[in-house]
Amino acid sequence: MSETTAADSGRIVVGVDGSQPSLAALRRAARIAELIGGSVEAVTTWEYPVMTDAFAVTTGWSPEEDAEEILKRALAEAFDGAVPPYVRAATAMGQPARVLTERSEGAHLLVLGSRGHGGFAGLLLGSVSTACAGHAKCPVLILHGTEDENARPEV
Predict the structure, then answer these.
(1) What pLDDT was estimated at residue 120?
(2) DSSP H/E element including 90
(3) Which partner from 20, 68, 112, 132 sits 20 to 30 angstroms from 123, CA to CA?
(4) In this structure, is residue 135 part of a structural domain?
(5) Residue 9: helix, strand or coil by DSSP?
(6) Which helix (H) or strand (E) holds 54?
């Protein structure tokens, strides 16, 4: 069992791919972090394609820069341009499920949207959320739908 530091005890990891469900997950994670006095680590992953087009290579295309831009836009959209100081952005090379599972080590919570940009519409869970639910090293919260659909009604 790994040692958890005080800083990690309130760290919430969120998988962000720019989709509406991932933005909802980011907003929910921020609300939870605020309540527990924790922090949010918003993570976007990237990989080099198996077959890279010669045109893309010669034009200086970078999947890492694309991932950074996706994360930057997602943070701006999720928080209306005012990202809370306890939210930290991170990009990492690798398959999303593997990276998020690794980042879950020592975290308080891993938050994901149920469906991202890939896969087949209509499935209850995407491959990343399914893999993370089974292999994460902390509790996992998977949100179905968008933030509005997940919102708790006012009483």
Answers:
(1) 40
(2) strand 87-93
(3) 68
(4) yes
(5) helix
(6) helix 54-58
